[in-house]
Write a structure and sequence with these properties.
single chain; 204 residues; alpha+beta; Peptide Deformylase; five-stranded antiparallel beta sheet; three-stranded antiparallel beta sheet; Peptide deformylase; EC 3.5.1.88; metal-binding; Peptide_deformylase_sf
Length: 204
């Protein structure tokens, strides 16, 4: 998942990020059952470096060309952000699943993706989700996430099912990163963009 800039690969130990149009992004990832053995820690380290260098807050294995149900995520958070962007400590998601925990309306915000470099669009997602699965050691995960961390894990879980954020986005909201900053000053509230670009905010 995109943080604030387009993907880069000009750092040591950083993997190339697969871009939209590559079939690996559209195939459901195979469940991870130990296929990588002792190589797994090296892959996770490379994925974390790649995510940080991009910069991003999440990265799924299919985004580096590996069709296994593994993802990493981490976000330092942004204080007083209307997206409820509180910190998400680094974690590894293995065979993750996300499910809404209530019937609250979905929350619309601009979202980007390291595999759709240079673009963002509005996506409505659940504000609270229950995350289940395992970590890299096989320890069970079962927790409720809210706000931006919930959006991050939903985005990465989608990748593992062959979905891109654009599949659920409002088409008319699509903007380049440059224009989002130029015309809307990077405002995390998509309300003004909705007025200027002529689209309804889903879930609002």
């Amino acid at each position: 998942m995109l943080d604030v800039a387009e993907g880069r690969t000009d750092h040591p130990g950083v993997l190339p990020i697969v871009q939209a149009g590559d079939p690996v992004l559209r195939r459901p990832a195979a469940p991870y059952t130990g296929q990588l053995g002792d190589v797994l820690p090296r892959l996770l380290g490379a994925m974390r470096r790649t995510m940080h260098a991009a910069p991003g807050v999440g990265l799924a294995a299919p985004q580096v060309g590996i069709g296994l149900a593994i993802a990493v995520c981490e976000d330092a958070g942004v204080p007083d952000d209307p997206r409820d962007r509180h910190p998400l400590p680094f974690r590894v998601l293995v065979n993750p699943r996300c499910a809404p925990v209530d019937d609250a309306p979905d929350v619309p915000f601009y979202e980007g993706c390291l595999s759709v470099a240079g673009w963002q669009a509005v996506v409505a997602r659940h504000r609270r989700v229950r995350l289940t699965g395992q970590d890299e050691h096989g320890t069970a995960l079962d927790e409720v996430l809210t706000g931006w961390p919930a959006r991050i894990v939903q985005h990465e879980t989608d990748h593992l099912h062959g979905r891109l954020y654009l599949d659920a986005a409002v088409p008319r909201s699509l903007t380049s990163n440059e224009n989002l900053l130029r015309h809307f000053a990077g405002d995390p509230d998509p309300g003004r963009a909705a007025q200027e670009l002529g689209f309804d905010l889903p879930g609002a």
